[in-house]
Amino acid sequence: MAQSPVWFTGGSGNRLAADVSGPDDGPPVLLLHGGGQTRHSWSKAHQTLAQEGYRVISLDARGHGESDWIEDGDYSNQSQVDDLVAVINTLEAAPALVGASMGGVNSLIACAAYPALASTLILVDVTPRLESEGIDNIIRFMTGNADGFTSPEHAADAITAYNPNRARPSSTRGLEKNLRLREDGRWYWHWDPLFMAGNHRQKVAAVSQRMVEAAGKIRIPTLLVRGQQSDVVSAKGAQELQAIIPHLSFVDVEGAGHMVAGDKNDLFNAAIIEFLQRHHPAH
Hints:
CATH architecture: 3-Layer(aba) Sandwich
Helix content: 25-40%
Strand order of the largest sheet: 1-2-4-3-5-6-9-10
Number of domains: 1
Structural class: alpha/beta
CATH topology: Rossmann fold
CATH class: Alpha Beta
Radius of gyration: 18 Å
């Protein structure tokens, strides 16, 4: 049976859907997905962390999954940081933040602006240096198929074309959580089309500069988990971030691309749990 979402209120009064698991008094861990993903992209990591004694919150970003779409199309990094701060203000303790791609950008910026916001920071395949080839691939994927799909299997074909290194699942049941069946009988991605409005290359350049400035202010324990085959974060990008954050820990996950947690979940879980046990231990 599917878990019903827990609802949080974002920075502009918007509703944010989340899955929450683990003991009530466990140290909080907030899982923040990448652009075009949902809270379900963390399903295995979420379950593992809850079993380890953490209070785990997997959040749908504004305009994604079951969270509200924003009428004026404000999906800026600042608006998402405001959502993040609003959620954390409801928690009894500073959480560990685990952010993939977009979620990592927002986590880094938030931690720089509010030094006491989080206890630890885990960045998943995101650094200020974002490789243009990988960003272009993401943009093509997310702006393609604007007219939807005839079936979930058709959507699965698009995912396989984007990420050929990941084995195609035998069932589309999980994928259907990322799709919406509309009245025209076609299946569409779950995100608000306004999320992809504007010049994304300009947006990436601006956010990269903002991330450089933010990284220089980070003092809490920080881990970068990179997919060794990522086309978004290069080894050079990881080295550059380590120069800005000297206390940064780094794990390079063999066989994983940009979608690290989905590509090599066991290796990903092992890396973040080891880090959390040192810096944000469960009771």
